Amino acid sequence: MERFYILRAMLYSAFRAIEKGYFSPKVASRIAKNLVEGALLKSEKEKMEKYEEKYGEYPPAFITLSPTKVCNLRCKGCYAASEATSKDTLPYNLVEKILDDIRENWGVHFTVISGGEPFMYRSEGKTLLDIFDKYRDIFFLVYTNGTLIDRAIAKLLAEFGNVTPAISVEGFEKETDERRGKGVFKKILRAFDYLKEEGVPLGVSLTATRENAHLFMDDELYDYYFEEIGVTHMWIFQYMPIGRGYNPDLMVTPEQRVKMLKQWRKCMVEKKYFVADFWNSGVVASGCIAYGRDGGYLYIDWNGKIMPCVFVPFYVDTVYDIYSKGKTLTDAIQRPFFKRGREWQRKYGYCRYHKVKINNWFMPCSIRDHYENFVKNIHKGEAKPEDENAAQFIKDDEYFGKMVKYDDELEKLTDPLWEKFLKEGKLD
């Protein structure tokens, strides 16, 4: 039923925004046209079937791509450790090659763009807008701080009809300005207005920490963004201790996480708000979606490093490596590191082809919720760290102890809840 509820919430959220005049029917029509002409082609299904025939599983459904580390903000605890002075940016021709690869070999027509700040991307005289314009048959979800979206950009996004921004906030104005800088929330409100005037569907992205978790436990936050602002989607990312100033003590507590889980389900089932919590929504996604799982995804950063997930900062190959050897992303996800991750997913309960025992999908994440297993059985000391932060925490005994303790406490809280959910389909 959970997939039914989330799909229903997606439709209701879109229609709600259309009724309020924030999501233009013309833009909706362009989106539908672009998607139908691309993703539903018979040839795309044949690509997936060809992949399955060779590898015994379907290809990933999308990728997340961060084309630049450059950002005009310097947020506390940024997972990407982004900053304005960074020079790390993928060449435009390589971004094209990546998108051509997934479209031609996997039949993929959905891509998530992250960063850095995507709208600061510059390469070979091109910007992100040139990508959107060229690849009209790919739908882009763009995580952005929103401060660079002006009226001209909003008009172009409406014309393209293949982009929806998810603008990062931390709650309301107070929380957002505390983490992102004074005056940032007002710039975000201005971006909301530009996008709504042009009828571009928009969403928000929030990071939940131990300090702001209370905001995610009642209706006020969700009502504000869906009813007053008029968003069509909300993405919640519980703080993962990676990146700049990583700190396990900032993670939402196991008790807070359970309360957030119950509130998420209430939003989805009762209020019909399209809210996805990257950890608490595991039951909708059939567990962990990383490691290039069929129906899942992988992550490529500004240096071309190919990683299992935005929150698993380790890699074996780069796109420079594979393309210089005449290989593709398919070769990268057939590496033992990725295959061990997918094998764990199958043992934990995800399997398209036959029935297996489904373990606790309220703890779906291979790294955050099963850290000891990740270190010993998936990472195994073989994958390279994305940056110095990852190199430090993977060898940090104190970090290891805190993560394992967190997982043990979460398991004690959620295992009984999971069994109840399996039997009765409810949490209370």
Q: Can you put this structure into words, describing what you see?
A:
The chain is α/β, with parallel strands linked by helices. The chain folds into two domains: 2-300, Aldolase class I (TIM Barrel), CATH 3.20.20; 332-424, no CATH class. Helices cover 46% and strands 11% of the residues. The strands form two sheets. Strands 7-6-5-4-3-2-1-8-9 form a nine-stranded mixed β-sheet. A two-stranded antiparallel sheet has the order 10-11. The longest helix has 28 residues, at 397-424. The radius of gyration is 20 Å and the shape is globular.
Provide keyphrases for this structure:
two-stranded antiparallel sheet; alpha/beta; TIM Barrel; 428 residues; nine-stranded mixed beta sheet; 11 strands
Question: How do the strands and helices of this protein lay out in sequence?
Answer:
Layout: H1 2-19, H2 25-39, H3 42-55, E1 62-65, H4 92-106, E2 110-113, H5 128-134, E3 139-144, H6 151-160, E4 163-169, H7 173-180, H8 184-198, E5 203-208, H9 219-229, E6 233-238, H10 254-269, E7 275-277, E8 297-300, E9 306-307, E10 314-315, H11 319-324, H12 329-332, H13 336-348, H14 371-379, E11 384-385, H15 388-393, H16 397-424
Helix pairs in contact: 3-4, 6-8, 13-14
